[in-house]
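Lecture notes, unit on binding sites. The following record was shown on slide 14. It pairs a sequence with adenosine-5-diphosphoribose.
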Amino acid sequence: MHPALDIVEADITTLQVDAIVNAANESLLGGGGVDGAIHRAAGPGLLSACRALPQVRPGVRCPTGEARITPGFALPARRVIHTVGPIWRGGAHGEPDLLASCYRESLRLAREHDVASIAFPAISCGVYGYPIDPAVAIAVREARAWLGRGEAPRSIVFCCFGAPVATIYRAALAGD
Ligand code: APR
């Protein structure tokens, strides 16, 4: 598979890729936004699988910047990679590095599980308030770096929920 970086405007729960990435919170027990959509589409098995993941400390199954993997259950995607983006607090609290880590850790976990194609939402750009332009720049930078390594996944899809976000991703990919 040739390395590919694609942008689609879609509901991520409908994508026929090996793994979709969930923008979760540290409890991994669901929420709103894309987290809520993924749990609704996957069905109750997803919450059970998340609840079965060990807590690294009370109430925390996935610390910010890390990723965990579960089956996709009723989703078209075989797997869900849950990652927890930083809450935007102005940019001087390590947010950029934590967001970059979400992409890197998700891709590393995907490789460990022989995932060939993976779709990302705009992590942290909703409820967590990360400004879209710098977030997209980080996403594109990390995806390009990964594809340069020549390891699976070789197909990375940015799944945009609406045309405005897709326009920002396309501009970032065009390098301007
Ligand atoms: N498909 C693709 N993208 C989606 C979908 C969907 N079905 N629904 C929402 N999005 C987009 C949003 O428009 C936004 O651009 O996903 C991006 C991330 O927004 P959120 O889902 O709000 O995630 P985030 O900002 O990372 O906040 C995470 O929100 O839902 C809770 O449990 C979650 O506490 C966690 C927090």
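Take-home: The pocket of adenosine-5-diphosphoribose is lined by residues 11-13, 23-25, 31-37, 85, 121-128, 159, 161, 165 (CB under 6 Å).
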